[in-house]
Structure formats: structure tokens, C-alpha cells
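Recap for those who missed Tuesday's class. We walked through two folding examples back to back. For each one, the amino acid string is listed first and its predicted C-alpha cells come directly after. Nothing is annotated here on purpose, so try labeling regions yourself before you check the end of the notes.
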Amino acid sequence: PLFSQRCSGCHGGGNGGATGALDMTDLNKDSAKACEQIRYRVSPANPSASQIFITTNPGGNAAHPYKFGGNQGNFDSFEAAVSTWIAAEK
């Protein structure tokens, strides 16, 4: 749910460039396949260094169109929740 709410609009086929970078088109049909794509963008040994956090952090300088509306608190909540998932995927 964390990814479908925030990421699938573009990465789920709504934006060709975004889908090419991280293909989440199967998120609702085959969540295991979509999760496999996301696992390539995480660092289980150091979740905060994961690409999915570096690119979307509103306090960072990575070029990504979605930065939680500039709200660091929303990003921090997302990072905490997804870090729990990353730890479970080790």
C-alpha cells in the first residue's frame, strides 16, 4: 500500500520514463514481481541509503518530481514504514 499510494501513478505505467526506471505495472496483479523491482532500489544493510529514499527526500538534491510536497515529516513517515519492509525482506 505504501508504494501504490505514492509511486504507482507514475511508475505503474502513467509515465513512460518513470515506468522504465522502476516498473510497478504489476503492483496490483503480481505484487511479488513489483516488489522485486523495488528491491533493486533498496539497501537492506543501510535502508536510509536506498535509492528510493535518496531520490524522493525533500531535503535532498536528487532530481525526482515527487518529493512529498516538500513535507519532510511525510517523507520521514514513509521512510520509517518502508524501512520496516526493507528489514523484513533481508
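Example two. Treat it independently of the first, because the proteins are unrelated.
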Amino acid sequence: MWRLTTTIPNECVVAISGGADSVAILHFIKRSHRKVSAAIFDHGTGLHDITYPIVKKMCDEMGVELFVGKISDTDNGKKSPEEHWRDERYRWLESLGKPVITGHNLDDNIETYLWSFANGNAKFIPSVRNQIVLRPFLAVSHEEMVEYCVKNNLQYHDDPSNKDFKYTRSKVRYGLKPEIEKINPGFRNMIKRKILNGENNIS
């Protein structure tokens, strides 16, 4: 059974991308008989054309209302594309006026910790953002999410940009993180313990 880092409210919106994490979470919450809807955001990269039909089909089959947002400001100024997309996505999600559940997981938390450590300010992803965005699955691994999808015959799509080394997160995910886990095989469990002890809420 997954151990959650914050309570899931009886009514919420799941931010869904079409990837294994958010697909598993939507199904998991819907199965708990909560009043749940879903929200998908088009970042203008072309990926939405692939993922939207998958998400729409799943929502229709489960009887889940689906909200669709689209990036409105394509000028990222001095921000990286990743930072700009994140800011635009959160701005829209928070405008929905309901608690929002995101698919952030243990692997995301490890990557954030390593990247921030390399920049001199080690921190975790907090369980709550602006009192409206909730991240209950920060101690659940991506592998567990994939296994859940397979077990429940859920279709999902792997974003190919996740393996594009022009993005910092991809360098951390496929370069730095595997090397750290080779050096210290217990690193992942150490991070998980810290998260479950609530240390991610102090950053």
C-alpha cells in the first residue's frame, strides 16, 4: 500500500499529463470513491496532440470531468522553457478553484534534491503549494506507478523529452542519479525516510 505525504480531500482535481504517474493517480483516487475531476494542460510543444486522446478516453470511461488549459504566454523572457511551462501550468491549475493533486513522486523528489544540492541549496519538493496544490505521492516511486498501470491495464504515454539531455532534469535523472545510487545503494531509501518524516515540508 502506498504511504501518502498529505491527505487527499474528498473533492479534488488531478493534474494529468498522460504519463504513468498521473494516470495511475487519477485511477487510484477515482477508485477511492472521491469526487474527482482531471485537468490537462497544453504547453504548446505538440505533445498534447498525442496525450489528450489518451486522457480523454480514460476520463470518459471513468466518468471523470476533464478540464483543458492552454499556455497563453509563449514568451518565457529570462526563464528556462521548463520553468516557464511550470509557472504557466500552475497559474492555470490554481485558477480552477479546487484542491489540485499532482503526480510528483519519489523519483522527482530525489532529482530535485540532487539538482538543488548541486546548486548549494539542497531541498525537497514540499507536499503543499499555496495551500491548493497537494502532492500526496512524494514517497511513491515511478516504478510503482508504472506497475500500477500495468496491473490495472491503464494506457499511458512516455514523454520523449524526458530523455532529452538539453533539459537539466534529464541530465540529473539519467546521468547523476544512477551514479549516486551506485555509490550509495541506500540513497533512495534514505530520501524516502526523510520525506515520510516530513522533512520535505520545511523547504
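Answers for example two:
The helical segments are 20-31, 48-62, 81-94, 106-118, 142-151, 168-183, 187-196.
The beta strands are 11-15, 35-42, 66-70, 100-101, 128-129, 133-134.
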